[in-house]
Amino acid sequence: MAEERPELRDVPVTWPVVESTDLHRDGWVMALRADSVRRTPEEEPFTRLVLEHPGAAIVLALDEQERVFCLWQYRHPAGRRFVELPAGLLDGHADEEPLGVARRELREEALLEADDWVHLTSVWPSPGILQEVQHLFLARGLRAVDRGEFVLRHEEADMDTGWVPFEELVEAVLAGRVADAPLVTAILIAQARGLAGAGRSTNRGDAR
Fold first, then answer.
1. How far apart are CA 102 and CA 119, in angstroms?
2. I need a surface site. Which of 56, 106, 137, 138 has the fewest CB within 10 A?
3. Strand ranges (DSSP E) for 62-111?
4. Which is nearest to 138 in space by CA: 86, 62, 55, 83?
5. Is 4 in contact with 14 (CB distance < 8 Å)?
6. What gap in Å lies between CA 119 and CA 99, rounded to an integer?
7. 103 to each of 62, 73, 98, 144, how far by Cα in Å?
8. Do residues 74 and 125 touch, judged by C-beta distance below 8 A?
9. Closest by alpha carbon to 55, among 91, 27, 22?
10. Which residues of the chain fall below pLDDT 70?
11. Element (H or E) spanning 139, and its range?
12. Cα–Cα distance between 195 and 192 in angstroms, integer?
């Protein structure tokens, strides 16, 4: 007899919060709080830390030669300079859509606009503590634009940029030479769906 198991999909559910205490909150878009959570009315509540985060949009920008626009950027918490994709927080207006943020970040960080967009996936990078949802997009039909009034500062002012063949990035991911989670996810999703690289198919997915 086949073993019964829950349906193979994530489902939204919320356990009751008895008390919530701010551990850090200021004018920035992120905050840290401690929630006292109760699983059932009979059980004692327990504490879970929650890092509030507005979410992010990440762009896998591919040109006609199947090259990916990459950034080399320092990340202080990790003590590492990562190979990354253009990305940014959903830290604008409350109704700002992920695709709008993706378009904005592609312009500001890569000086590019795209005609064709495909939503690759949305992932929770660390749901045990972090509220962040990362929305990954594939962008094609690229053209050069100016950055507008945006000024690169801090880590962004130090970053390098360049074009890397898609298949070379796949090899670097599989070899563990690049380990930025959004880049790894975007590259492997695009490859698995046949949207980029040697196995690219005519199925371009659903743009939005």
1. 10
2. 56
3. 67-75, 80-84, 87-89
4. 62
5. no
6. 8
7. 14, 20, 9, 13
8. no
9. 91
10. 1-2, 92-94, 149-157, 199, 201-208
11. strand 134-144
12. 8
Sequence-distant (6+) residues with CB within 8 A of 95 are none
Residue 150: per-residue pLDDT: 67
**What is the amino acid identity at position 200?**
R
Amino acid letter, residue 172: A
Neighbouring C-beta atoms of residue 101, cutoff 10 Å: 24
CA 154, CA 118: separation in Å to the nearest integer?
30
pLDDT tens per residue across span 25-59: 998 889 999 999 999 988 999 999 999 999 999 99
Note the pLDDT of residue 87: 95
SS3 state of residue 163: strand
- C-alpha to C-alpha distance for 178 and 84, rounded to whole angstroms: 9
Q: Name 75's Cβ contacts closer than 8 Å, sequence gap at least 6.
A: 81, 82, 155
Contacts of 116 (CB under 8 A, 6+ apart): 139, 140, 141, 204, 207
CA dist 132 and 54 (Å) reads 6
* Helix, strand and coil percent figures for the chain, each rounded to 5: 20, 35, 45
